[in-house]
Design brief:
Pfam families: TFIIB, Zn_Ribbon_TF
Helix content: 40-55%
Strand content: under 5%
GO molecular function: RNA polymerase II general transcription initiation factor activity; TBP-class protein binding; zinc ion binding
Distance between the termini: 167 Å
Keywords: Coiled coil, Metal-binding, Nucleus, Repeat, Transcription, Transcription regulation, Zinc, Zinc-finger
InterPro entries: Cyclin-like_dom, Cyclin-like_sf, TFIIB, TFIIB_CS, TFIIB_cyclin, Znf_TFIIB
Order of helices and strands: HHEEEHHHEEHHHHHHHHHH
Largest sheet: 3 strands, antiparallel
Organism: Colletotrichum karsti
CATH superfamily of one domain: Cyclin-like
Number of helices: 15
CATH topology of one domain: Cyclin A, domain 1
Radius of gyration: 48 Å
Shape: elongated
Strand order of the largest sheet: 1-2-3
């Protein structure tokens, strides 16, 4: 038999071995539990620390100590001022250096000037005051003294208060387009398109703004007085100047527009031929001449009915109904395009020759183009800067045979045409080409 002590020791050893075996089997679970407990302790400490910092910052539990304050002049307690950076910009005159500065803002010139010495301290200042201006003098009717927008355009009719709606891709785009078509004045739309065509045609042959505006006024006058009735309204397709991008645009009343431009050239003293207008507007010379005659009689009739010259009729005061483009006027344009070394002298001699061609009976029925080209041909040889008939023909738009034929008549009358005051030697006269 074993003693009781031996039995107890044996049982304790067996229990210890069994416990160690179980702990080894459950080791991962034990580590997870230990890590979780450590994480909870760490979070608890962090929450305590944050709470302590929050209480110290907000001073919830500790009352603030009493601080006596000084009374101001008006009896109110003055608060302690906290230091702050002064970021305001102070402009001081660099010459006077007065503080506070004596600066005056001149909004008319946009400058800031020192009131003491007159030095300009700043420029391009913005006028922030309220703007109350009157535009009564800009309107002919004087009915809108403080409007918003542009002045009334005398070239258009109506109130000119249409609203332009942009195109879109939404579901209401069709409705907006229909409203745009209903609300827009058809008359103004046609006039604007005609004015755009007149402006583009005038710019393409360098007519200038004066001629373009005059042509627009004449077109407006014919439009208001019903001259368009019975005229063909179908347009013609004209190509844009850029040959790479051939855009096509539709021109309404092309013959009337061409006639208005031709009359405006006559009125401004700018010599242009039917052929030049044809090259720009693509309207035949025959059609331009026919409409020109109708416009001529129509404008004379309107001028007789309104002798005071009110409105657009005042633009017809300088127009001569029976006048035609003279060879003298064409000489100026052609000589400038031929690049003479002494272009001014060639122009003067050719113009003087053109004035005297009325005495040559053989040139009475010839075109001013051929007469002007022949005068330039003779003047270039007289001044020692000869140009061939082909060179002049390319500029004048006539054939070289026509120039030689007209020059033959000038050569036959050279003794009566050439004036001694021009300072031309007899050798130069004798050296003129026979043909």
């Amino acid at each position: 038999m074993h003693s009781p002590l031996f039995v107890q020791l044996t049982n304790d050893l067996l229990w210890t071995n069994s416990k160690t075996t179980k702990e080894k089997e459950n080791l991962p679970t034990h580590k997870a539990v230990v890590n979780k407990r450590q994480e909870l302790r760490r979070r608890k400490k962090e929450l305590k620390r944050r709470r302590k910092v929050f209480d110290e910052l907000n001073n919830i539990y500790t009352p603030k100590p009493y601080e006596p304050k000084m009374l101001g002049p008006n009896g109110a307690a003055t608060e302690e001022k906290v230091f702050e950076d002064d970021l305001s910009e102070v402009v001081i005159c660099p010459d006077c250096k007065e503080y506070p500065p004596n600066l005056v803002e001149e909004f008319s010139s946009g400058d800031m000037v020192c009131g003491s010495c007159g030095l300009v301290v700043g420029e391009r200042i913005i006028d922030t005051r309220s703007e109350w201006r009157t535009f009564a003098n800009d309107d002919q009717g004087n009915d809108d003294p403080s409007r918003v927008g542009d002045a009334v355009n005398p070239l258009l009719n109506g109130s000119q208060l249409e609203t332009t709606i942009a195109f879109g891709e939404g579901r209401d785009s069709k409705n907006l387009a229909r409203l745009q078509g209903k609300g827009q004045d058809k008359t103004s739309k046609s006039l604007l398109q005609a004015y755009r065509d007149i402006g583009s045609f005038s710019d393409s042959i360098n007519l200038g703004k004066t001629v373009s505006d005059s042509a627009k006024h004449i077109f407006k006058l014919t439009f208001d007085h019903g001259f368009m009735k019975g005229k063909p309204q179908e347009g013609i397709f004209t190509s844009m100047p850029n040959p790479k991008v051939m855009h096509r645009k539709l021109t309404l009343f092309p013959a009337v527009i061409a006639g208005c431009i031709f009359i405006a050239c006559r009125q401004a003293g700018v010599g242009r031929t039917f052929r030049e207008i044809f090259q720009v507007t693509h309207v035949s010379k025959k059609e331009i001449g026919r409409v020109f005659k109708q416009l001529e009689s129509f404008l004379q009739k309107v001028k007789e009915e309104n002798p005071s010259g009110a409105g657009s009729v005042s633009n017809l005061d300088g127009y001569k109904a029976s006048a035609s483009t003279s060879a003298e006027d064409l000489c100026t344009r052609f000589t400038s395009n031929l690049n003479f070394r002494n272009a001014q002298k060639v122009e003067n001699i050719s113009r003087a020759l053109a004035r005297k061609t009325s005495t040559v009976s053989e040139l009475a029925g010839r075109s001013p183009l051929s007469v002007a080209a022949a005068c330039i041909y003779m003047a270039s040889h007289l001044l020692g800067e000869p140009k061939t008939s082909k060179q002049i023909a390319g500029t004048a738009g006539v054939s070289d045979g026509t120039i030689r034929t007209a020059f033959k008549y000038l050569y036959q009358a050279r003794e009566s045409l050439i004036d001694k005051e021009w300072g031309i030697d007899q050798k130069a006269i004798d050296a003129l080409p026979v043909n």
